[in-house]
Amino acid sequence: MPVILAIESSCDETSVAICDNGKITANVIANQTIHENYGGVIPELASRVHQQNIVPAVQQALAIAKIQKKQLDGVAFTQGPGLLGSLLVGVSFAKSFALALDLPLISVNHMQAHILAHFIDEPMPKFPFLCLTVSGGHTQIVLVKDYFDMEIVGETLDDAAGEAFDKTAKILNLPYPGGPLIDKYAKQGNPKAYQFPEPQIKDLNYSFSGFKTAILYFIRDSQKVNPNFVEENLADICASVQHSIVNILLNKLKKAAKQYHCTQIAIAGGVSANSGLRDTLMSLQDSLGWEVFIPKFEYCTDNAAMIAIAGYHKFLQNDFVGQEVAPMARMNF
Ligand code: KG4
Ligand code: ZN
């Protein structure tokens, strides 16, 4: 049965995982802390650090899984979407590795992989289910009909939910990436302390750019009255912002669940690590008659385990690509 080595390098995490017959036996993640100094990911720097990290990460993953190169059956990699320079490092490595070892290559879509992270461990959702995929670059409601048969039924028209968290954090002078910090401070705050308007967007789509501007003006106006407004009210501001983002996300998800008669509901992507989103979703499940699926923390943010499980299912379907494959900064399902 197949042993797959998987590479993820779409943004600022270099990650390598091994999937041994459907079980993840290694998931090495090398974080790039260098970007904290710049308030966001610097693409040029990200590619260089991937270049330094990728070979040690592969060696470490093989050692953890106690697998020798000759035992591998396939190489999966993130083809896109993501930062082109970052993707290039992972794609080039995967191609060379597969060529040297004469292994088949498996291309994986990063956003599909976030969703397929639900198939790493039990409990697993049953098809068809709805997945709210929320990351630093994407906010989508996806109708998942099968492993690789997915339809985006709603998405953001501008900023992603993760960007709304990160940009708010920047306004509050918190370091990058701010999402986890907002989550941390929100735990001590009152989520109803301040109200922010919910964007009125048609259908199942989202918009977060106006929301971000509303927060910017609110902070600016409050600081005119009290220059220490942010320092004195950080927990309440974070709790209120988080509460608003979670409400915006879940209101459209409820609408989608009704429209598609779905009760199997999942979340995926970096923002699915948010405790406000996780707790609210769990508290809703009984009243809405939903069965809710929330990934383990380590499978929410970028990781190669999700690429490995996606690669495993593609391997079972004999879905391989040739050496002409190239990274794609934008990539549809
Ligand atoms: O999926 P991901 O690791 O990378 C992308 O594919 O974009 O998502 C990263 C995003 C960032 O915007 C980060 O701030 C956000 O996920 N994030 C969180 C939390 N953990 C990560 N946002 C809110 N609360 C969290 N606990
Ligand atoms: Zn991601």
UniProtKB/TrEMBL annotation:
GO MF, one annotated term: iron ion binding
UniProt remark on cofactor binding: Binds 1 Fe(2+) ion per subunit.
Residues of the signal peptide: none
InterPro entries: ATPase_NBD, Gcp-like_dom, KAE1/TsaD, Peptidase_M22_CS, TsaD
Catalytic activity reported: L-threonylcarbamoyladenylate + adenosine(37) in tRNA = N(6)-L-threonylcarbamoyladenosine(37) in tRNA + AMP + H(+)
Subcellular location, principal: cytoplasm
Location of the protein in the cell: Cytoplasm
Pfam family, one: TsaD
GO cellular component: cytoplasm
Gene Ontology biological-process annotations: tRNA threonylcarbamoyladenosine modification
Chain sites annotated for binding substrate: T133, V134, S135, G136, G137, D166, G179, D183, N274
Cofactors (names): Fe(2+)
EC code: 2.3.1.234
Domain Gcp-like per the UniProt entry, residue ranges: 23-308
Keywords: Acyltransferase, Cytoplasm, Iron, Metal-binding, Transferase, tRNA processing
Gene3D superfamilies: 3.30.420.40
Annotated binding of Fe cation, by residue: H110, H114, D302
Its biological purpose: Required for the formation of a threonylcarbamoyl group on adenosine at position 37 (t(6)A37) in tRNAs that read codons beginning with adenine. Is involved in the transfer of the threonylcarbamoyl moiety of threonylcarbamoyl-AMP (TC-AMP) to the N6 group of A37, together with TsaE and TsaB. TsaD likely plays a direct catalytic role in this reaction.
HAMAP family linked to this entry: TsaD
UniProt record similarity statement: Belongs to the KAE1 / TsaD family.
Name of the featured protein: tRNA N6-adenosine threonylcarbamoyltransferase
Source species: Pedobacter chitinilyticus
